[in-house]
Specification:
Elements: H1 3-10, H2 13-29, E1 34-36, E2 45-47, E3 56-58, E4 67-69, H3 82-89, H4 91-117
Antiparallel strand pairs: 1-2, 3-4
Helix pairs in contact: 1-2
Length: 118
């Protein structure tokens, strides 16, 4: 179906604009160098070809201007690796998982020890 057919069928400017946005996002999502601005209420696409070596990206949407990382796609984190920035953004999340893993492992090991006694 052609986009003009969709516009005629829908006959609603708001829905037609939303359809065009979804189609554009679909096309851009297939480009491996497309990055979406992580700023709240932005969603502007930045096509960042050849930016892996210099990963600081700037959103060029008027009124935004946020900086973010090409690699992890989160807000820019100067002097930090992506993993360090991720851990700093959610310290409770990362420590919670390691505690849960250790507890699960300890439980599993104690169950195996009990099985060995039987």
């Amino acid at each position: 179906m052609h986009p003009t057919d969709i516009h005629q069928i829908v006959a609603n400017d708001l829905l037609s604009d939303k359809f065009e946005d979804f189609m554009l996002r679909r096309v851009l999502s297939m480009d491996p160098d497309t990055r979406w601005c992580p700023a709240p209420d932005c969603g502007f696409a930045v096509i960042a070809t050849g930016c892996a070596g210099c990963p600081k990206l700037k959103c060029e949407r008027p009124g935004c201007g946020s900086y973010f990382c090409y690699h992890c796609k989160a807000e820019w984190h100067p002097n930090q690796t992506c993993d360090m920035a991720r851990a700093q953004r959610s310290p409770m999340f990362s420590s919670h998982h390691s505690i849960t893993f250790m507890t699960f492992r300890q439980m599993t090991m104690s169950n195996h020890a009990q099985d060995a006694k039987c």
